Amino acid sequence: MKKIRELIVFTAFLVVALWKFDVVIEVLKSIWKIVFPFALGGAIAFVINVPMSFLEKKMLGKIKENNKIGKKAARPISLLLTIILVAGVIILVMFGVIPQLTQTMGNLMTSISDFIPQMQNWIREFSHDNQDIMKLVDQLQFQPDQAIKWGISLLGNGVGNMMNTTMSAVGSIASGLATFFISFSFACYILFQKEKLHLQVRKVIFAFIPKQKADAILNICSLTYRTFANFLAGQCLEAVILGMMFVITLSILKMPYALLIGILIAFTALVPIFGAFIGCAVGSFLIFMVNPKQAVLFIIVFLLLQQIEGNLIYPHVVGGSVGLPSIWVLAAVTIGGNLMGIIGMLIFIPLVSVFYTIFREFVYLRLKKQHIKRVTRTDVEEYAEEEIASSFIVPNEK
């Protein structure tokens, strides 16, 4: 009777939700607006907790057990160092990218002006001076002064439009800053009280959910946290190493925009599989405008460094932290990108890894219940009678 009542209540809610679907969506949007600062704070706390925990462990390892003041100060100091580290990286990237980006835009206009006559000569040679083709090609002109005027007029129109909506813009900025302040404060509270919050969550779960199901939920949450943390730390470290490899290699080969391309590839490499190739395309275009031969050399260098990174560095840095085969990594990136863009690519790999691990353990448990020890392409091996009663360990997949 209890299950029947629950089914009736669920069906009633489902019918009402489908009948008043627009109202339900508006209610969910309103709830999300309220919850968003706290969700953002949780995400910030999760990201900051990875380097902060590392620093805290290093500091606590050097603090003696009887030093209570040092133990209490370890977490605030590690949090402060993490914030300084993140802010330092952002400032370093800004000071490294913005000056080079400004110089690149100026050089790019000059390079395009010089490149168009060369391209016209190449087309003239390949087309054997075909008059119809050359009429179209000769119409290609690039005037830096006109481009600058167009950019200034576009900026002026943008400023004019922004001035017309100054109050709404100020309101949006103020709202964004307030949201970020609330989220950051909430993140700091989570990081300072994470052990206490963890204990409170465990009490709530065990209070309202049967013990067996509660243990399963907590194990899944623990697996999810470990997978996401390992993936985040490994992906960031791998991106830094790859960016430094490009900066050093391009500097040795005396290619233009070495620092800019290295930073760009480091950031795009955070997107699994496809990210670094976006940086390669942009870097190839920038170098091509200066020296087409060096652009070809850059593509060769990129492919070589990608092979080194994919076969040597990535397996050791990220390794099996997500425990996901390559085919499912590609599927996770594709599905996540289609659903949520770049954020989806980053989220879906560890998320699919969690589901993959849970489903894998579930499959092995089902095989154990059916007394099946190993399945090969041609045979099915069953457990001996004395093995059935013993504890079961999930074997490692090759």
Structure overview:
The protein is an all-alpha fold and 398 residues long. The chain is extended, with a radius of gyration of 29 Å. It folds into 2 domains: 146 residues, no CATH class; 166 residues, no CATH class. The protein has 13 helices and 2 strands, in the order H-H-H-H-H-H-H-H-H-H-H-H-E-E-H. Strands 1-2 form a two-stranded antiparallel sheet. Helix 2 packs across helix 3, helix 8 runs antiparallel to helix 11 and helix 10 runs antiparallel to helix 11. One of its GO terms (cellular component) is plasma membrane. Its main location: membrane. InterPro entries: AI-2E-like (IPR002549). It is a multi-pass membrane protein. One of its GO terms (biological process) is transmembrane transport.
